[in-house]
Each structure stands twice: as C-alpha cells, then as structure tokens.
Amino acid sequence: MNIKLEKNENNIEKSFFSIFITTFTTIFIAELGDKTQIATLMLSAESGKPIIVFLGSSLALISSSIVGVLIGKWVSKKISPSKFALFTGALMILISIFLAYETFKNYL
Amino acid sequence: MILSLLLSTFLTVFIAELGDKTQLATLTISGTSNKPLAVFLGSSSALVFASLLGALTGGSISSFLPEVVLKSIASITFFIIGIRLFINSFTIEKEEKEEKENN
Asked: How far is A3 from chain B (nearest CA, A)?
C-alpha cells in the first residue's frame, strides 16, 4: 500500500511538465497544415491586417482548447477510466485512418 | 472595422476548430491526465505557435515541408496515441477488476 502511494506521488510530481510537453507536441504536429491555419492565412492576406487576424485566431484557438479540456474532464467523470481510454483510443485511430486516407487518396 | 475583423476571424476559426482533430486530441489528453491546466497551456500555446508560424512564413509551412509529410507524421502520431490508449484501457480494466475483488 505504501509503495503504491509513493508511486502515485511520483507520477503527480513529474507530470505537469511532461503533460505540457506531450500536449504541446501532439497538438503542434496535428495543427501544422490544418484548415484553420489556412483560413488564418487567407483572412490575413485578404484584409491586409495580419496582427488583428492573428489576435482573433489566437483567441479562438485558446477558447477551443478550453472547450476541449472541459469536455474531456466532464466525460472522464461520467464513465470509467478504462472505457474512456477505449473510446478515445478508437477515436484517435479513426482520425489517423482518416488523415492517412486524405493524404494518400490521390495516389490510390 | 478592426473590431468586426477581429470578431469575424474569431468566429471563423472557432467554428472551424469545433470537433476538429486537435480539439478531440485535447479532449483525450485532458480526460486521461489529472492536470487540466498543463493540458490547456500545452494545447493553446501549440495552437498559437502553429498559427504564428503560419502567419510568419506567409505561405503555409508546406512551402518547405510538403503537406504529405506533415499529414503522414500527424497520422502516425494519432495512431500511436490510439494504440497506447487501447493498451492503457486493458491495463486499467484489469486494475479496476482487481480492486473490486480486493474490496
């Protein structure tokens, strides 16, 4: 029991930074070349006011991550951790298949 | 004028981002970790940084990194996260069962 508690404490201690880095890397990779980035570019070129567009887009992206974090927390309280991992795992694999299809459909 | 541009950009990007893969990934990481603030900071700084990088390079990043490469990397990342979650799901389920038996 003591060993388990210590293990849990260790997890919590190291987790803030490692969770930050994991999240940053994942989201950054997913966002490069995404449609919102393209939308931001088009709006910025069209209006000739890149700073305003950048501000508006940043605020929107920050709000959308708040929404994502809150929904994730809320759903994870409603169902068991193993079910949550199973559902989100399936979701991630679906996104990966969809992305792969979108990327290579021209070569098929 | 400036306010309406700000608002229209906000709405366009916010609506485009709802239910998008980045938001679903944020949702997933948030639900599987106990540090919502770390997830929020990581996710929003990555999004803002990606958007800044896009704005600075003028064209998209795809001018020096082809889209096929970017999307393949993203697809592989999502696949790895998915598989890891499946493995986690089974180990957590085992722990949950053991806990029930102990009680």
From this structure: 16
The answer to whether the Cβ–Cβ distance between A89 and B89 falls below 8 Å is yes
Tell me the shortest Cα–Cα distance from A36 to chain B, in angstroms. 6
Report yes or no on A9 lying in a domain.
no
Nearest residue of chain A to residue B76 (CA atoms)? A96
In a domain, A94, yes or no: yes
Structure confidence by residue, pLDDT tens digits, B48-65: 998 888 777 655 555 667
Give the pLDDT confidence of A54-97 residue by residue, as tens digits: 899 999 999 999 999 999 999 999 999 999 999 999 999 999 99
Residue B57 DSSP class: T
Cα atoms found within 13 Å of the Cα of residue B95, Cβ hemisphere only: 11
Distance from CA of A6 to the nearest CA of B (A): 17
B2 touches chain A (CB under 8 A): yes
Residue A77 counted as domain residue: yes
Could you give the CA distance from residue B100 to residue A4 in angstroms, rounded to a whole number? 17
ipTM of the shown complex: 0.83
Q: State the total domains in chain A.
A: 1
